[in-house]
Design goal:
The structure holds two protein chains of two kinds.
Chain A lengths: L51 E2 L11 E2 L8 H43 L15 H14 L1 H34 L15
Antiparallel strand pairs in A: 1-2
Helix pairs in contact in A: 1-2, 1-3
Chain B lengths: L11 E4 L8 E4 L6 H17 L16 H5 L40 H10 L3 E2 L7 H8 L2 H17 L6 H25 L1 H5 L8 H4 L4 H23 L1 H21 L6 H21 L4 H23 L2 H7 L4 H4 L1 H24 L6 H23 L2 H24 L7 H4 L11
Antiparallel strand pairs in B: 1-2
Helix pairs in contact in B: 5-6, 5-11, 5-17, 6-9, 6-10, 6-11, 9-10, 10-11, 11-12, 12-15, 12-17, 15-16, 16-17
Classes of the chains: A mainly alpha, B mainly alpha.
Function (chain B): Converts protoheme IX and farnesyl diphosphate to heme O.
GO molecular function (chain B): protoheme IX farnesyltransferase activity
GO cellular component, one term (chain B): mitochondrial membrane
């Protein structure tokens, strides 16, 4: 069940937020590939100019973010947004897999231990039997050892991505500050190209 | 026309009008059959079309595509309304598919405040800085309680040094140490966001909750670290500044990544904990004396009963989060090391008079508490259960301040400088 999904997958960034570009049009029921669809189902109000952060995802425990696309997004900002989106998706997939695998293997371990002791899964009150912490510790050790390489490669990639994102954020912030200081405003959106 | 592969709606997101309300609340509704579901989709669309000030778009219908819809093999209808408004795990017949990471809470009526807090935590929030919250955010980012403990140990090191007490240097050393500790803790949290999200102990940290951005956290760290280390180097002495910078480096670039790679992280972490009292001493004297190293050794040894006991009861979280801790991978080593270092504290206390740091009364008055922690460590070693681990951990929390206080009260009073030339300081005759 363990996928080796630590490598980057195709970016799913393009179709996140169509809401932001409108000025009074009718509701855009944009057809899109379901696999790219918003997994959270949340859509902030169009007037909001902020990113929005949601509650922890039920599987990966990571909080999803919906990024606001400004009217005239610079290429740098677009790169940053795509990178953050991609990192979020990649991280989400890793942790979903991790948590799911952990739970599943833990259940299997409990079941096998109980059956080797000749006990049923539930006791007389109908509650699930649990093992002692020493018996569980065997499983915890095994899980860590089994996944060591996967964890190490996730680590490496996470550090690299985190660092790149922060550097990009710094560049964007400096760029925007410079523009504000020199009195430049954002250009009109049309010549900047599409965000998708 | 929108078409959904899953024709059952399991919940409806409602967007509240933007007149002061920032969040979105989920209303759990049951849709009994497909025709009703189409109807409600249609009625939603009509509602949208009528009210163009509310941008309800395609994404509203994508709530169907919850991740667990994708990964579970089948959907079953709920038998009855759930008490909590948040969507919970689907009833799956064979129970073996997706299992929740979080536990399903018991169906007891909960106090209003707790319920409100819980609902508030499940809401979407704008990702922007609330300036009124910033002090609290910075406090959590810099782990203010841990920082306070670090500064206390540094102050103890300063006070134990056999030189006249200089309040200005003391203040500068304390402030510098505080700032360095804030830096180290902030960078640590910056590195660990996805891991912190997945552990119960750490899931409410500011970066995890998005209260500030990573760039903001790094800027805060730099804004603390640069003045802090500069203050230590220029205001105290270069040796202390170097130790401060070294400690930041060890904590952020050695300990933090090592936590996920090897159990050696605990030893590195113990060194990190040992450096502040050394810094305090060098701030006072300007040199790395044996007394400084002795105080460092106290902290180093203390870390093991403290941390090993703490990590004993967090084994599941560490395992799931991918942290390589002794308690998970080498449990017997974990217990052995905790015991070894607890007993070692007794020996180190005896070195106090030898190195002229304390009088001979120190090993005697510290013997009871050292024996007690060794006894608890022995029980932990022998039984290795949660109860004994907890006892050892809580003992370590009061043991360290007590030990430092006793050392301070038993501090060796040195003769003033001009008499020292006549009577060179020798190890106490009492030995």
């Amino acid at each position: 069940l363990v996928h080796s999904k630590d490598s980057k997958k195709d970016s799913k960034t393009a179709t996140r937020s169509p809401t932001k570009h409108h000025t009074g049009e009718t509701i855009p029921l944009i057809r899109r590939d379901p696999s790219h669809c918003q997994r959270t189902g949340f859509s902030p109000a169009a007037a909001s100019k902020c990113d929005w952060i949601g509650p922890p995802d039920r599987l990966s425990n990571l909080r999803p973010i919906i990024y606001h696309i400004p009217e005239n997004e610079t290429p740098l900002e677009r790169t940053l947004r795509h990178l953050r989106q991609d990192t979020e998706d990649w991280s989400h997939e890793f942790w979903t897999n991790q948590n799911f695998t952990f739970s599943k293997e833990k259940e299997e371990h409990v079941r096998s231990q109980l059956s080797s002791k000749g006990l049923s899964e539930r006791d007389d009150d109908g509650r699930k039997r649990t093992l002692s912490s020493e018996e569980m510790a065997v499983f915890y050790k095994h899980f860590l050892d089994k996944n060591m390489t996967r964890h190490a490669s996730y680590n490496r990639e996470w550090y690299g991505r985190n660092f790149t994102i922060t550097l990009l954020m710094a560049r964007v912030a400096l760029h925007n500050t410079w523009r504000t200081l020199t009195g430049q405003t954002r250009g009109t959106g049309r010549e900047k190209g599409k965000s998708t | 026309m929108y078409k959904t592969p899953c024709s059952r709606l399991t919940g409806v997101w409602k967007c509240l009008l933007r007149d002061g309300l920032l969040g979105v609340s989920v209303q759990q509704r049951l849709i009994a059959n497909a025709s009703r579901s189409h109807m409600s989709v249609r009625s939603l669309i009509q509602l949208c079309r009528k009210n163009q000030t509310e941008w309800i778009t395609f994404q509203h219908f994508c709530f169907l595509k919850r991740q667990y819809v994708k990964s579970s093999s089948g959907l079953c209808q709920r038998a009855g309304p759930k008490q909590e408004p948040v969507a919970s795990v689907l009833d799956d017949p064979d129970d073996s598919v997706v299992s929740q990471v979080q536990q399903i809470p018991a169906l007891k009526p909960e106090p209003e405040a707790a319920r409100a807090a819980r609902l508030e935590a499940r809401q979407w929030k704008e990702l922007k800085v609330e300036y009124s919250d910033l002090p609290g955010i910075y406090a959590r980012l810099s782990k203010i309680k841990l920082t306070a403990l670090v500064v206390t140990t540094a102050a103890a090191g300063f006070a134990m040094a056999p030189v006249p007490f200089d309040p200005v240097t003391f203040l500068m050393a304390s402030v510098g140490t505080c700032l360095s500790s804030c830096t180290a803790n902030s960078i640590n949290q910056y590195f660990e966001v996805p891991f912190d999200s997945n552990m119960n102990r750490t899931k409410n940290r500011p970066l995890v909750r998005g209260q500030i951005s990573p760039l903001h956290a790094v800027s805060f760290a730099l804004a603390c670290g640069i003045p802090g280390v500069t203050l230590l180097t220029l205001g105290v002495n270069p040796l202390t500044g170097f130790l401060g910078a070294l400690n930041i480096f060890l904590y952020t670039c050695c300990y933090t990544p090592l936590k996920r790679l090897s159990i050696a992280n605990t030893w590195v972490g113990a060194v990190v904990g040992a450096i502040p009292p050394v810094m305090g001493w060098t701030a006072a004297t300007g040199s790395l004396d044996p007394g400084a190293l002795l105080l460092g050794a106290f902290l180093f040894s203390w870390q093991f009963p403290h941390f090993n006991a703490l990590s004993w009861n967090l084994r599941e979280d560490y395992s799931r989060g991918g942290y390589r801790m002794m308690s998970v991978t080498h449990p017997s080593l974990c217990k052995r090391v905790a015991l070894r270092h607890s007993v070692g504290l007794i020996g180190l206390s005896a070195l106090g008079p030898v190195l002229d740091v304390t009088t001979w009364t120190f090993p005697l008055v510290s013997l009871p508490i050292n024996l007690y922690i060794s006894y608890l460590a022995f029980r932990f070693y022998h039984n290795g259960d949660r109860q004994n681990a907890r006892k050892l951990f809580f003992c370590s929390l009061w043991h360290l301040p007590m030990l430092l206080l006793l050392a301070l009260t038993c501090k060796k009073r040195h003769v003033p400088q001009d008499e020292a030339a006549v009577a060179p300081s020798t190890p106490s005759l009492a030995l």
